[in-house]
Structure of AraC family transcriptional regulator:
Amino acid sequence: MEQLEAWCRWYTPTFEIEPLRSKQDGFPASNRSWSVDGLAVSRVRSPPTSVWRSKTNIRKSPVDHWAITLSKSRTSSVEVGDTSLDVPAGAPFVLSVGEELRVHRTEDDDRLVLLLSRDRFSRIAHLLDAVKATILPASQGRFLADYMLVLERNLPNLSAMDVARFPNAVEAMLAACLVPSADRLDSARHQIELTLMERVRQAVRRNLRSPSLGPDKLCRETAMSRSQLYRVLESEGGAAHYIQRRRLSESFSILCDASNTHPIARIAEALCFADASSFTRAFRQEFGMTPRQVRAASLAGQAPMAAKTGGGGDLLHGF
């Protein structure tokens, strides 16, 4: 009960919140946000709710930001004026907080929200207004969704030096996603490459233990051509090399888990290596130590850390 009251106070007076589940069940919810120069990115988890913004809310809190929302696993029922639509999970949608609106979510939800100040993002105002309260075409919607996931993944690693460039990078990518043109695609080229790389990363993660994982499967799952996939993974040494490195990274994590007692040969087989000896050779080449040495260090409470690649600065290259 106290959690629900705190949640409602957090959003008052901008929004009204109505829980759609018995208050006796509690209200476990969380909101983690990053904010800089007219742009906020929030990761929100909440039980079923109805959220609305009425004329009274608009008078009390006259903000008119745009909100771009991506629900990861649930359908959102949206009402704006005479428009009603059910937005499927994985499809981002744009709303103006300057208008009366209502959003229903009848199940537990995990979502990302971009809040954009009209003053800061005035150059793309007409693009956002043109698509508000609509379901974006599939290709544009998927690309924008993938980019929002890139933001979520990289924001925690963003350095203080990069923060000032962050809104410009987001603005360029939103313009390219919402209304693609040659100039906009060129301006957002690096952001697009990062988004395609995120698409590949997710596909590899889903299929890491599948023996059929290879360039053909990646092309199908990421909706890329072979030439696109080659360009995206060129700096990684190609698809086969990237897949092997991800499998080796996964094996490193498994071996650092002292509670995991599976034989090394079984771990190698599960991650699609031909045999234990080829796995050990590749592992030593990647990490400078053998699987047995990593496991022994883990059991002694001294498990080494695998080197991290990339960082938040990649998100802003070219800005």
